[in-house]
UniProtKB/TrEMBL annotation:
Keywords: Oxidoreductase. InterPro entries: NAD(P)-bd_dom_sf, SDR_fam, VLCFA-Steroid_DH. The keyword Membrane does not apply. Residues 313-339 are annotated as: Disordered. It comes from Helicocarpus griseus UAMH5409. PANTHER family: RH59310P. GO terms for cellular component: endoplasmic reticulum. The keyword NADP does not apply. Belongs to the short-chain dehydrogenases/reductases (SDR) family. GO terms for molecular function: oxidoreductase activity. This is Uncharacterized protein.
Length: 339
């Protein structure tokens, strides 16, 4: 009987400690949402501080650009398409006529051998950049590579995914670090994803997000070790309303502007890596407490659903394009007859 009571007491104590651990962990995460943002400290109004946002012509990147404008930062807009950069610049200039906007054109999915020259030629050496948002990511413009098994990828496809999500971010951070140090206090924000735990049919993409987490932690410690006043953090996001997202809308699927504002609101929260949007945080907490085997089954199930929906949309788009081409061909034929 005594041994039974002792065993029950031990189990009760372990259970209480486990609950206390989960409670303290939840409170620590909740505190990140209550901490006021320290983003204003990177804005030097006398110098006219600039923020550089990579991949700023679409989705989350445009959201970051707009939100940083609201905080009175001048903007360097990065993209690979000059026409889209011009449109984004024109839209933001109309919305924020008193701010300055500079385009920076570079294809993040390509090799980075010429990146230093591109930065020097397009931006110069003296521009007062104090914020770098490494946002660009995805499949490098390869929509056909969405939800594709690793064995079906070509060599060039793999390289493009690694370049756009990993290599470009690393090299741009390296090139701009002296500029950020010179204009400090400064901030590097790396956009990561909760998919860093691993995803089927997105294995390469998810692995690059795990790299971002490790890179951010290492660089943050390096800045502390060197005594540099450059803060480095990452934001982990989940599903967002972007053109490449088959989910579209939903309770857990915010707009790009909402993700951007939530991310900037978490600056200075005390965590190097943070899930900035509270509904995504609820998802992440659920993943953290349920058994790993169940997490894997849920991930496989959900990704298969996404893959099916993506294929359905592709087929619909292909049918629409075929019909449009057929109508265009008939119209051209009629025009020739009339001529």
């Amino acid at each position: 009987m005594d041994s039974t009571k002792i065993a029950l007491s031990v189990f009760t104590a372990f259970g209480a400690l486990a609950l206390l651990f989960l409670l303290l962990r939840a409170l620590r995460h909740i505190s990140t949402f209550l901490h006021p943002s320290t983003l204003p400290k990177y804005l030097n109004k006398s110098k006219g501080s600039y923020a550089l946002v990579t991949g700023s012509t679409d989705g989350i990147g445009t959201g970051f650009a707009r939100e940083l404008c609201k905080h009175r930062f001048n903007l360097i807009l990065h993209g690979r398409n000059p026409a889209k950069l011009s449109r984004t610049k024109a839209e933001l200039s109309r919305e924020f006529p008193d701010l300055k906007f500079l385009p920076f054109t570079f294809d993040a999915s390509k090799p980075t051998d010429s990146l230093e020259n591109a930065v020097r030629e397009q931006l110069g050496a003296d521009i007062p950049i104090t914020v770098l948002v490494n946002n660009v990511g995805g499949l490098g413009g390869q929509t056909h590579a969405q939800f594709m098994a690793l064995k079906d990828h070509l060599n060039d496809e793999v390289d493009r995914i690694i370049n756009v999500n990993l290599r470009f971010m690393t090299q741009l951070s390296r090139v701009l670090l002296p500029v950020l140090e010179r204009n400090s206090p400064a901030l590097i924000m790396n956009v990561s994803s909760v998919s860093h735990i691993g995803m089927p049919y997105l294995a390469i993409y998810a692995a690059t997000k795990a790299y971002i987490q490790s890179f951010t932690n290492g660089l943050n410690m390096e800045m502390r070790a060197e005594g540099n006043n450059v803060d480095v953090m990452s934001v982990e996001i989940a599903s967002v309303q972007t053109p490449g997202n088959p989910l579209g809308h939903g309770f857990f699927v915010p707009t790009p502007d909402k993700i951007a504002s939530s991310s900037l609101a978490r600056v200075g929260c005390g965590s190097v890596s943070v899930v900035p949007y509270w509904r995504h945080w609820l998802q992440k907490m659920t993943i953290d407490v349920i058994p790993e085997s169940l997490v894997k089954r849920l991930v496989v199930y959900n990704v298969k659903l996404l893959k099916t929906e993506w294929k359905r949309r592709e087929e619909e788009q292909r049918s629409t394009d075929d019909l449009r081409n057929e109508i265009t061909g008939e119209e051209r034929g009629e025009s020739r007859k009339e001529a």
